[in-house]
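Researcher: Structure prediction, please.
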Amino acid sequence: MKRKCDKCSRPATHHSVEIVKGEKIEKHLCDAHAAEEGLSLQAVHTPINELLTNFVKLHAGVESDDDTKTAGDLVCDQCGITFSDFRESSLLGCPHCYTTFEAPLGPLLERAHEGGTHHIGKVPRRAGVAEQRQAQLSRLRRRLDDAVEAEDYELAAQLRDELTTMEDPS
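Model: Predicted structure follows.
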């Protein structure tokens, strides 16, 4: 059902909701009445890829000219994308691109993620005991592999025994 303008019978093209002193105020206006109220007639929906491209271009331009020139020449040896291609499309070609473009991407990621550049995972509070047990088993297996590789057979035997007792369902 299309809404009509609150002030005339034309179709409403501008819709707004305001909450003033706990009261919800809805306005549905046509272009003419929206202009009278000073509402913008510009399109407010910008595609996300355009926003990302503008963001990358804006922040990549902050770097010095020397950094930008060398970054533009970088090419991922796995997928063949250049940093210039990334700046235009805001899309990387493969996971290896993060390593290849680490120097120019670092400042962009820091600004986008408020200083964070590395993912630090954690177990959600709602995660069950099974997930925590699996994580502990995984850690023990890695330690066992490291001990065997380092030829520390005493530690490897202890870790093997610990794994056996943890994996035994009874």
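Model: The beta strands are 14-20, 23-29.
Researcher: Thanks, that helps.
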